Amino acid sequence: MEQDALDKLKDQLGDHQIFGEPVSQGDTTLVPVGEVQLGGGWGGRRDDTGGGGGVRARAIGAFSLAADGTVSWHPAVNVNRIVWGGQLALATAVVACAIAFRRRR
């Protein structure tokens, strides 16, 4: 039954997602999921050619499979993105206050 659920998940998700080894604890099985993106290019002038490429891999979450067959998704939390968003909001507020106080003079 657990293997059937894993096969269904694999069929429903895209080709760029990677599944880690399932981890069982008690009656629950966790399946970690990651994403890999590849990119590259090639070009140059007449005699000078070059190229480059890159790989980006990141965790996107985990599926939990319960003993009764229910499947739940648990997304990974990117703390760096949350902190960056807070800093951006703070910077926007500081600039808005500076503009508002400057216009009063």
UniProtKB/TrEMBL annotation:
The lineage of its organism: Bacteria, Bacillati, Actinomycetota, Actinomycetes, Pseudonocardiales. It comes from Saccharopolyspora terrae. The chain crosses the membrane at residues 82-101. This is Sporulation protein. Keywords: Membrane, Transmembrane, Transmembrane helix. It comes from the Bacteria.
